[in-house]
Specification:
Elements (H helix, E strand, L loop, with lengths): L1 H15 L5 E2 L4 E3 L1 H7 L10 E5 L8 H12 L5 E5 L1 H10 L4 H10 L8 E4 L2 E3 L2 H11 L10 E8 L4 E7 L2 H8 L9 E3 L2 E5 L8 H6 L4 E5 L13 H16 L1 H5 L3 E3 L14 H25 L2
Parallel strand pairs: 1-9, 3-4, 3-11, 4-7, 11-12
Antiparallel strand pairs: 2-8, 5-6, 7-8, 7-10, 9-10
Length: 301
């Protein structure tokens, strides 16, 4: 029996690979106060639009529909922030790549293209495949090299604070922002430990404002609806974690000028099969809100 267990563990290690330390000392994260000092809000005649893309795993496909609707309406944000899945949307949007190219990348994406399982007490997913995928699409650009002003939210555990990553490769920044505690191997920057930004900011509205946005559109895919009820331990744990995150982010969401909550909740949060449904939900929700946004932007309100 012991031999069988040993063989199983060895086989699992071979399949999953060995864990590596995710050390990215070139990434730079700033607190909200530091961002406000670097980018003081200037009063001018042009109203700068910011979009804060929220986290939510496979619900992130919703963001593509939102972007498509905005593109068709000729509305373009100058400032973008994102958390977790929203960080993916933020850097892709900030790249100003053709929408068709971004859509193609998202449609062709499969789970194992961005998942690299490992056997480790630090996590079950290494996270580097996600970084590689983003870097490949963006040509290894740093956040500061992207055409639009962009920042990615992360939670720093050592000092218990929320940071906005504004410098470093986009892929590694997205990886850090998407590192769900207990699932992904955390990212290390100097003496700091970074995990999913959604722990402290599901939708980084305040950071978008701090970067200079006069008006902020918040896209929340995570806190608007609840999971279908179940009695298993996994559902209980994830639902409790979700309630805690969303409760702590209520005040920040209320600070957005427009809060969009598309009508989509996946049947399986690990499956990409419903991506078309998610994209369409984001598109329809954004189309419905567009007249209000257009009117308020035109009036400078």
């Amino acid at each position: 029996m012991r031999l069988n267990i040993l063989i199983f563990l060895i086989f699992t290690l071979i399949l999953t690979g060995c864990v590596q330390e995710n050390r990215y000392d070139s990434l730079q994260g700033k607190t909200l106060e530091e961002i406000q000092e670097i980018y003081p809000l200037q009063d001018n005649k042009s109203v700068k639009l910011g979009i804060a893309f929220g986290g939510g795993g496979v619900r992130g496909f919703v963001h593509l529909g939102v972007i498509q609707a905005l593109e068709e309406a000729g509305i373009r944000a100058e400032i973008v922030t994102g958390t977790s899945a929203g960080a993916i949307a933020a850097v892709l949007y900030a790249s100003e790549l053709p929408l068709q190219q971004i859509r193609q990348e998202m449609i062709e994406l499969e789970r194992w293209d961005v998942a690299d399982p490992v056997l480790s007490l630090n996590g079950l997913i290494q996270g580097r495949k996600l970084a590689f995928w983003i870097n490949q699409i963006l040509g290894n650009k740093r956040l500061s090299e992207l055409p639009k002003k962009v920042g990615v939210a992360v939670t720093e555990l050592v000092d218990s604070q929320l940071l906005l990553v504004v410098e470093g490769k986009a892929g590694e920044a997205v990886q850090a922002s998407s590192s769900i505690p207990g699932t992904f191997v955390p990212v290390k920057v100097d003496q700091e430990i970074w995990v999913d930004g959604g722990v402290l900011s599901v939708v980084p509205v305040r950071f978008a404002r701090a970067l200079g946005a006069h008006k902020v559109l918040a896209i929340d895919t995570f806190c608007g609806r609840g999971y279908p009820v179940s009695e298993n331990a996994f559902w209980t744990t994830t639902q409790a974690f979700r309630l805690q995150m969303c409760s702590g982010n209520k005040s920040e969401l209320l600070e957005a000028d427009w809060l969009l909550r598309p009508d989509f909740e996946p049947k399986d949060f690990l499956s990409f099969e419903e991506r078309d449904v998610a994209i369409q939900a984001g598109y329809e929700a954004m189309k419905e809100l567009l007249p209000t946004i257009k009117a308020e932007l035109a009036n400078g309100n």
